[in-house]
Write a structure and sequence with these properties.
Blueprint (H helix, E strand, L loop, with lengths): L1 H40 L10 H8 L4 H7 L2 H17 L8 H8 L6 H29 L1 H10 L4 H32 L4 H17 L2 H8 L4 H25 L1 H22 L1
Helix pairs in contact: 1-4, 1-5, 1-8, 4-8, 6-7, 6-11, 6-12, 7-10, 8-9, 8-11, 8-12, 9-11, 11-12
């Protein structure tokens, strides 16, 4: 009888623990989704160009205001997918969201000062590197990069919110987490090379995703333009990815925002 009672108690405790864990994951997912949604909505401040043919087709069924909202559909779906992947696999990949998880669990075992310090330093370093890369490649191909920059012009709000939150959720806790989880599952290892590979792959894939815009804008972009897009975005992705691995997702948030702050400041000085 005692054995039966103990078994029932153990089952009840395990079930309660499982329920709490699932609730925690749902709350984490909702918080990440809201942060990412702020970034997605900030894209409404950007004039995203559409080809005349595509625009005319859309105007047959939708108003201009509706078309602006339709532009958010793709990033919104990717955001949902990234949140689901991150919530499901970040623990198995031994990647952390320390501050948000700490607030949800009402614990304070995260190192806030260290996260902010590394995030700020990483963002400043990334911002300086990206600014130098822009200066170098602009001197090589000024006309093409000026045209590309005018097409891809972003507002400060979108750079901070979409870049700082949405992109980090999409690329770090979404894509990078999934890549690392797959590599860990294949090689049954948590060695540094697994994380380094995941960081670099996620950064490269993000860089490659920018190439269609260059071809759409310039037709046949030069090698300098292609290298600028690939190198610039990859370097930023590596810095933010390393911070996510070592200090948690919030450090990557902070770094991405500070990187844009440095670049905005640099642009202001150059005017």
């Amino acid at each position: 009888m005692r054995l039966v009672i103990r078994s029932l108690i153990k089952i009840r405790i395990n079930n309660k623990h499982l329920v709490m864990k699932n609730v925690h994951k749902i709350v984490l997912g909702l918080v990440l989704f809201v942060l990412g949604l702020c970034g997605v909505l900030s894209m409404l401040t950007i004039d995203i160009p559409l080809s005349e043919e595509v625009l005319n087709l859309l105007l047959e069924k939708f108003t201009l205001q509706q078309i602006e909202l339709l532009k958010l559909a793709n990033p919104l779906m990717m955001l949902i997918m990234a949140v689901v992947l991150g919530v499901c696999f970040h623990e198995a990949a031994r990647l952390e969201v320390p501050i948000i998880n700490g607030l949800i669990m009402k614990t304070h075992n995260y190192q806030l000062f260290s996260i902010v310090k590394y995030g700020t330093a990483g963002g400043i370093i990334a911002g300086i590197l990206l600014t130098l890369i822009a200066v170098i490649f602009t001197s090589i191909s000024p006309e093409e990069l000026t045209e590309l920059a005018s097409t891809m012009k972003s507002t400060i709000l979108a750079r901070f919110l979409y870049g700082g939150f949405a992109e980090e959720i999409l690329l770090r806790i979404g894509l990078m987490t999934f890549i690392i989880w797959v590599l860990i599952s294949i090689f049954n290892s948590h060695k540094s090379i697994i994380y380094g590979t995941g960081i670099v792959l996620a950064a490269i894939l993000f860089s490659v995703s920018h190439l269609p815009i260059a071809f759409q804008t310039l037709g046949s972009p030069s090698l300098a333009v292609l290298l600028y897009i690939l190198i610039g975005n990859t370097i930023g992705g590596i810095v933010f990815g390393w911070l996510y691995w070592k200090k948690g997702l919030e450090a990557a948030f902070i770094a991405h925002i500070f990187a844009h702050a440095v670049m905005v400041f640099a642009d202001f000085l150059c005017k």
